[in-house]
Structure formats: structure tokens, C-alpha cells
Write a structure and sequence with these properties.
By secondary structure, the protein is an alpha+beta fold. The protein has 6 helices and 14 strands. The strands form 3 sheets. Strands 9-14-13-12-10-11 form a 6-stranded antiparallel sheet. The protein has a 5-stranded antiparallel sheet with strand order 5-6-4-8-7. α5 packs across α6. The radius of gyration is 21 Å and the shape is globular.
Length: 250
């Protein structure tokens, strides 16, 4: 591991150790896909169990809860969802993910304190550690030139389901390099380089080898391309090639 990965690993192990020693649930900040991969690769070093959540299914940034064996109370993730709305919709600009994230960062907030940020044609909301939500509600009054109102949502009020684009592809096998090549429309050698360079994550874990065979339900995160959910085998062509379905998260 490089120096940064070693630091992340030590920090997560320490949170696990605290949970076990104090018999309480401890929580990380929101982890990136790469940080989640580091956690999974070192899970045998943890001194407690753990669970992860980003506030909704398929969330990219996830908070980890380290859970001791001896636990005698119920707990919730210390995160909250905040919905953003234009105060005057008639005069509002079309805001992008970058606009909203930039406005939040301008408040001096660390990116790790924020989870996923959803900005599309119908809604804008983000997840944040609950300790910083009051500050955000008080300080964030505009995004670019658009005046906005913020509201902390009650648990259960957010039922966000990511949008998918359904597609199909044909491969010689379900091996990871073949699947990546087909999805990204690149050569097998280019796909292999992406894998070796640590640009491919399978179910949140970095995959550095092309020997993995994709199966239905696998979530592939491809740096520079996006997130894919591997679907089902739809049949075999006359040349014995496999036709499969997949979903692109949009």
C-alpha cells in the first residue's frame, strides 16, 4: 500500500478497535469507492464487524458503522438528507452537480463530510453527517445566482432510485477484461490496462486482475466512465459468443 492507503487503513482499524474496546458503534466519514476497497481488502485486521450505507441503495459514497460483538442498544447512521429547492422556480437557473457541490465546498466543508449529491431535472438533495447539517441550513442561501431554500428531510422521506439506461453487449466470455472492453467500446488490451491501473472496482472492491468472471447483480465502477450493473445472460450467438444485458447508472 502507498502512504495514503496505509493512513486510511490505520484510521479505519482504529475506529474498529475503539468500537470493540468501548462497546459502542463508531462511524467513519463518507468513504470514496477507493477507500471502501481499502476497507474490504483489510477486513481481516478489523476488531469488530461493520456495515456500510450511503443513505440509499447503490450510493457511491458510503459511511461505515463499526459494530462490536457486545452491543445492547439500537443505533442509526449519523447522517441526514437535505433537499435543495429554488426559492423562486420561475427565475431559477439550471443548476448542475458541480454548481451545488461548489457552493457546499465554499462553506469550508470537507468533502468527506458529504455523501452523494443528486442533481437532476426533478430534484436536488445530498447526504451529510448530521453534525454539520445545521451549519449548512443556516449558511447556504444561494447556488450561483439562484436563491435556494434547504430542508432537512425526515428519515424515510427520500425514496430515490437511480436512473438506469438498459443496454446489451456481446462478449466471448464473462471475464472482466472482456466485459469492460465491450461496455466501454475499447480493445481488450486497453481494458486490461485499466484493470491493472486500478480504475475498475467490482462491488466496491478494487480489482487488479482480469481473471474475475462477472455474474448477475455485480456492480462495476469504471473510473472516467461510470457505474454499471451487470445483468443476465440473454443467450449465445451462432459463433458461441455470449449476449448479456447491463444497466448504466445515470
Amino acid at each position: 500500500m502507498n502512504e495514503e492507503a496505509t493512513y486510511i487503513c490505520k484510521r479505519l482499524i482504529d475506529l474498529s478497535r475503539q468500537a470493540n474496546r468501548k462497546e459502542i458503534v463508531t462511524f467513519s466519514d463518507f468513504l470514496t469507492i477507493n477507500e471502501q476497497s481499502i476497507l474490504k481488502q483489510n477486513k481481516e485486521k478489523l476488531e469488530s464487524g461493520y456495515r456500510m450505507s450511503g443513505g440509499y441503495e447503490y450510493a457511491e459514497r458510503q459511511m461505515v458503522a463499526f459494530i462490536p460483538d457486545a452491543l445492547f442498544y439500537e443505533w442509526d447512521y449519523p447522517m441526514q438528507c437535505v433537499r435543495i429547492r429554488p426559492a423562486y422556480p420561475k427565475f431559477a437557473e439550471k443548476l448542475t452537480h458541480r454548481d451545488v457541490l461548489g457552493a457546499l465546498m465554499s462553506l469550508g466543508i470537507e468533502r468527506s463530510k458529504l455523501g452523494d449529491l443528486i442533481v437532476n431535472d426533478t430534484e436536488m438533495f445530498f447526504f451529510a453527517k448530521e453534525e454539520i447539517v445545521p451549519y449548512i441550513l443556516e449558511q447556504l442561501t444561494s447556488v450561483r445566482h439562484t436563491v435556494v431554500t434547504l430542508e432537512a428531510e425526515q428519515e424515510g422521506n427520500i425514496n430515490y432510485v437511480p436512473h438506469f439506461e438498459e443496454k446489451e453487449a456481446i462478449v466471448t466470455s464473462n471475464r472482466l477484461d472482456a466485459v469492460i472492453a465491450a461496455i466501454c467500446n475499447i480493445s481488450r488490451s486497453a481494458s486490461l490496462r485499466m484493470i491493472q491501473e486500478g480504475k475498475i472496482f467490482v462491488n466496491g472492491a478494487e480489482s487488479l486482475h482480469n481473471t474475475y468472471y462477472c455474474k448477475q447483480g455485480d456492480v462495476l465502477s469504471i473510473r472516467g466512465f461510470g457505474k454499471i450493473r451487470f445483468g443476465e445472460t440473454l443467450g449465445v450467438t451462432k459463433k458461441d459468443r455470449i449476449r448479456f444485458s447491463y444497466r448504466i447508472f445515470s
